[in-house]
Request: fold
Amino acid sequence: MKNIAASLLSVMCLSSLAFAQPLPEAARTMEGVKIVAPFHLSQDICSLSDAGVVVYTEGVTQASDSARGSQCWQANDSQVGIVRTACVTFVAGKGSRLVLDADAAGGEIRVQFRDERGRVIPAFAFADCAPVTTAGNRVEVGWLTASEKSDENAMKTGLVDLCRLDRQTVSVEFQLRNARLFGFAVEPGRELPLRLADGPHLFIDDYLVARSEGLIRVTNHPDRLPSPAISKDQSPMGKVVPGSLKYDPERKIFRMWHWMPGPNGIRSSLVYRESKDAVHWPGTGKVVMTFNGYGSAVLDDGPECSDPQRRYKHACFIFQPPPSSAMGMHVSFSPDGIDWTPYEGNPALPYYPIGDQRWTIGVGDIICPFWDPVRRRYGAIVKMMSASAKEFGMESRTTRPGLGGRLSGQTSSLDFVHWEQPWRIFTPDSADEGATEFYGGSVLARGDLLIAFPLILRDDLAAEAGGKIEGIGYTAIATSRDGRRWQRFREPFLDRASQPGAYDRAFAWVSGVTEANDKVYLSYVAYNQGHKTGDRQCGMATIARDRFVSREARGEKPGTLRTNLLSYAGRGPMQLWLNADASGGEIRVQVVDEKGVVIPGFSFDDCAPVAADSLHQQVTWKQPTSRLKGKSFRLEFSLRNARLYGFSFAKNT
Reply:
């Protein structure tokens, strides 16, 4: 029973299970459980005695099997016991099976699956499961079909194909009676193709990658302005904290809504500004809203929105100490981004005071809303807090003693008014150094991928070597393929400045993201001294479209990347376009079938080499790409002294 500790970079490997963080609906049964970093397991049986695998038990005890030299969970004949795992991502193709390492001779074991919200998945409940009543190290689990359940003469085991659960997030729940359970595994069966639309399809994570040899993954960094885009001198209150950023293609201007301290004791003002180039933001801006809180952000649904009076949406945290029930996340609406009307049912999400048993599921004073175009819903990354300093073994310098640290959660909504209870998405783990905390993050959608920019806080460090500890902060990258679970990459994307005395020497926190002119523009919080001290100004940075992460072959020795099995689900003519820099070398692509055999006419030799630096370079072969429509295939990239960022099946997607 061998565990394979894992980098998140191999998350969709066909023969593995990726363990994710527990979700909030089950939080009441997981008090005191430390959330562990996701890891991977081999196709071998996963031991249920491994740390972090089991998150809830009832009516069972842990015992040793001297003959095996391993641990198990057991329940005696007088009661039914429950064992529940952390959330796992199944990679299950056609013919996939769930198998157990168990001894149920003289008793029984049943299995059911719960979705990421804690609900039992239809057809995979305990009542649907044919009881396991034998012993073995690979006992197959079956669920009864509807016809079998209605057959009074024979209740045959229907070995239900788990491909329905392919790439879904579930927790596995075992019901034991007079039985012992050692572990489980998924036999993945035949791989199912990933159905891809036009794109773009980026290589930030390893979702598309089946194999990579001779390539390195490189996080690329944006170019920043040498001086503040909006300085403290442009604020009547002497502080500017950038907020939401948007490019208006009709007017060809950039628009920003940012925070500054409000006048006469008011905590916050929402300030509106415009710029022709995102570099020069003249004047002091226009105050369009004041509120007693923090964490302000604005969304624009665009000119085609269903309700023009609510085209612009604002979310913030309102501070109203107990016994008031108004404290929490408040939302407002506007037809133009200037005149705002608060929602009469605020707060949309509550804050729970220290000492309340719901403390860890309430929202804090950072709110970062976004629109998810794939799942057609709103989301928000919000500030949450750990239960105590003991939960993650760290305590922040700037929170109340004993409370631990700041975390990031997420919530979602169909209407920007009714929101789900937040669940945790970014928490510290053993791979993080020191007192790592999280302060929210903006989100950018690209194709079927959501890219977040988590704000990392290290309040235990000084901006200058040997200086006073006032805290530092930088921005990282995280990705989500389902809109709920995130893969966080550790290396800084936008780091604080390396030059002593720079205006962003202490902090570089991305706050606003927008696209224009084949670039991504990022406004960011620039602090020069520390978290709670020094100047607060607005920085601006840019990076070429979709070039956040590259796969690189350096030198003349080629490197290769093979994708997982794909199929084209778009409606267009299906061409292949690369976002790549091969100006110093070349990239060739070949197409292979499910068995890895090159499809005639689509070999490396048939491919016209790509040898330029462009965001959209077409790949051509001796055969037209349209021949691949309706087929399952893999793309194989061969790189020589080149960088590959992603691909698409249509130009300029």
